[in-house]
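Hi P.,

Sorry for the delay on this. The queue was packed all week, but I finally got your sequence through. Input first:
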Amino acid sequence: MNPDHDPPVRLHVGDAVVARVAAQRARLVPGVVTLRPDLAQTLLGIAGSVFGQDRSRLPADGVSATVHGRAAEVSVSIVTRLGYNCRDLAVAVQREVAAEVSAYTGLEVLVTVTVADVQLD
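Then the structure:
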């Protein structure tokens, strides 16, 4: 094929893809112990366990994402350990998740981080 005559590519990145990429990156940030699922994700997990549904098809626990055209809004809920500055950790998660999702999908990304819990161990 001739590159000058290739049809334009239309791409829609799904919410679940963005959530999975964001979750993978957030887990790797030093200071993040785990991600905390919200109530809806917890209930889906319980229902999935009861009815034997494949959890791999659900969005990543602790992360929700919504894609609007060329932009994505991502919410991440994290758990950390005592000793990490929550503000600095949230900024690091925000920066790294935004960069990873943007690099992977080409979308503009707004990331909101909630520190849901601090482990005292």
